[in-house]
């Protein structure tokens, strides 16, 4: 059981009465949750390390530029989107820069970039290659949460999933 805002004495009583193990963090649907919201961002570090490993494996394949971008869209986007959607936290620009650095390194096979990341992220109709713009994806995920919260205010009785 994960506890927040409970004294040590109360934790001990709950543990004694209920017989549950009290932990500092739990993993729920692949995301580590703690009593401190600031540590939720640690999930990004773990995910970035996993993405690096996955892209290193794919880097051994002889893929074209478009093939590498397709690999990003298929392998990386779902993982990042899942984290964006399940942890509605404000992220620093450095997280997006780090993600862009990882992606750029893979797209250009470790060589010097030939085109700016923003140009690659532009739509195909505008001459880009449709590489995901992580900041826009994150903002969209946050807006979905805000939309849900606004809709909740209109209800008199809220049902909570258990």
UniProtKB/TrEMBL annotation:
Protein known as: Reverse transcriptase domain-containing protein
